[in-house]
Amino acid sequence: MFDTNLVIVGNVLTAPEWRRIASTGSLVANFRVASTSRRFDRDNNRWIDGNSLRVRVSAWRRLAEGVAASLAVGDPVVIYGRLFTRDWTDEDNNPRVSYEMEAMSIGHDLARGRGKFFRHKAAQVVAVEDAESEAMVTGELSEPVPAEEIPIGFGDGLPLSIEEPPTFAEPLPLEVPAAPSAAPSDSPSGSPAEEDDLTLEVERLVAEQPAAARRSRRPKREPVAA
Question: Which of UniProt's keywords are assigned here (predicted)?
Fold first, then answer.
């Protein structure tokens, strides 16, 4: 009735492998991913691993091709999909529960590395898939796909014009423009010693002036008629 859609940020545990659904013949790529939390231990002054979540991820059709050609063990990934549990019984007749996810979108975690995107080439649809092939693998029997029948493998699917792996340029440091230099002043400039001598000479001339010449120039008040 309700689906549990969520995002998992973690690392690839197992290399993606192709499987074939026995009942429908559909191909799907499966791999396992682990998401582990980390916390800081103040007593030992270091980071330690916390709780961990391990999920089996299934990808279909074009997403499966991208997964098989792009992901390797240890890659940091971000996965969005539908999470559910599957109950099963092992060889000793013990009940088991596994967590599985039908992925809708998968990508590398660019906070921990860099990547380059290559778009799929458009292809014609040769058949219409039935509703059963659209469903999730929930305990259906599957079998490994032989190497000669695998539609794509790790590293395949890159443009033919690329003869070697792409390189990534290091980010350039931010260049701060230099501050503009001050415009040259039109007034003559002298040495500090000459300016000090000129200041002292002006102060001496002001001190030698008579008191009448140095009186205030305030306007004279006219008498007001009563």
Answer: DNA-binding
pTM for this entry: 0.54
* C-alpha of 183 from chain center: 45
Give the Cα separation of 29 and 150 in Å (integer): 10
Q: Whats the size of the chain, residue-wise?
A: 226
Q: How far apart are CA 147 and CA 18, in angstroms?
A: 9
In this structure, CATH architecture of domain 4-116+123-149:
Beta Barrel (2.40)
CB atoms within 10 A of CB 119: 6
Domain boundaries, the chain: 4-116+123-149
Question: What is d(CA 120, CA 118) in angstroms, rounded to the nearest whole number?
Answer: 7
Using one digit for the tens of pLDDT, what is the confidence trace for 71-127? 889 999 999 999 998 888 888 888 888 889 999 999 999 998 888 787 766 554 434
Interatomic CA distance for residues 132 and 144, integer angstroms: 19
Residue 121 Cα distances to 71, 157, 196, angstroms: 19, 9, 81
**Do the strands 27-41 and 17-21 form a parallel or antiparallel pair, or are they unpaired?**
antiparallel
C-alpha to C-alpha distance for 53 and 38, rounded to whole angstroms = 12
**Which tokens hold the place of 8?**
């998992």
**Could you give the maximum distance between any two Cα atoms of the chain, in Å?**
127
**What is the Cα–Cα distance from 46 to 41, expressed in whole angstroms?**
5
